[in-house]
Amino acid sequence: MPEGPEIRRAADELAVVLDRRIAKHVAFGLPHLKCHDALLSGRRIEAVESRGKALLLHFADGWSVYTHNQLYGRWQVVAAGKRPNTTRQLRLAIDTRDASALLYSASDILVCQREALAEHPYLAGLGLELLAPQTTEEAVRARCDEARFQRRALGGLLLDQGFLAGIGNYLRSDILYAAGVRPDWRLGDLQPLQRAALADACLSLTRQAYRSGGVTNNLHRAAGLKKSGMCYSRYRHLVFDREGEPCWTCGTLIIRELAAGRNVFLCPACQAGR
């Protein structure tokens, strides 16, 4: 599933071709949404934004389109009127004079007035937005100090969008590694320095992944590995999806465990002690 950084980058790409443009033609692929084709066609798109893992398109006269890619959804920008040859199902097409924005395979789509978004179950439940410009290290540390989260194991807590919005599975593994903590430890059991390290890793790695196109590894190291010929998928992460490979720091082999029903990757040496 695309995580917060990927959705924000998709929103940036869409904004280049949609923001302040007239949607000459809007077509939904899901039958229950077809009634909105005529409603939105011909309207100006006023803004494109991301919140957590959701992407929002705001049209003139207060109309908005909420989309969530879930596991398989994918946005694609192509030349105006073009449709790629793909087996994916087209769920939403927005054609402007100069380009077309296409959403494939997603099924979580809603059309509503903008003020109604505040009551959307996903959006209303979002926690602190790590990619929001106003979010500071102090705000994330304060979030980690809130009493309601202290009894939660880190492996499940970091996937809870009501805690910190935008973190998914690859960010979870690499944040835990960067902070030197394990997924089965509870937030309230961390020492002050560990808690601060966790908060700082949540913010810094999420923002680095946004800026770098998904790289959570040390950027200097990643650049060297790329130059040596290593492929993106192998140099991209600190520990995620690196089971059986040596830790970049200590050489211990990375292991895989389950936390909150999903795979989490860690270094048993670097994440061993309190």
Walk me through this protein's architecture.
The chain folds into two domains: 4-124, Alpha-Beta Barrel (N-terminal domain of MutM-like DNA repair proteins); 128-266, Helicase, Ruva Protein, domain 3. 30% of the residues lie in helices and 22% in strands. The chain has nine helices and twelve strands. A four-stranded antiparallel sheet has the order 1-6-7-5. A hairpin with a 3-residue loop joins strand 6 (90-95) and strand 7 (99-104). Helix 4 (137-145) crosses helix 7 and helix 6 (169-179) packs across helix 7. The protein is globular and about 60 Å long. The two termini are 31 Å apart.
Shape, per Cα inertia axes: globular
> What is the correct CATH architecture of the largest domain?
Orthogonal Bundle
- Number of discrete helical segments: 9
Order of helices and strands: HEHEEEEEEEHEHHEHHHHEE
Instruction: Return the structural class.
Output: alpha+beta
Helix content: 25-40%
Give the CATH topology of the largest domain. Helicase, Ruva Protein, domain 3
Q: Could you tell me the radius of gyration in angstroms?
A: 20 Å
**Highest-level CATH class of the largest domain:** Mainly Alpha
Q: Could you describe the largest sheet, including whether it forms a barrel? A: 4 strands, antiparallel
Counting DSSP E segments of at least 2 residues, the number of strands comes to: 12
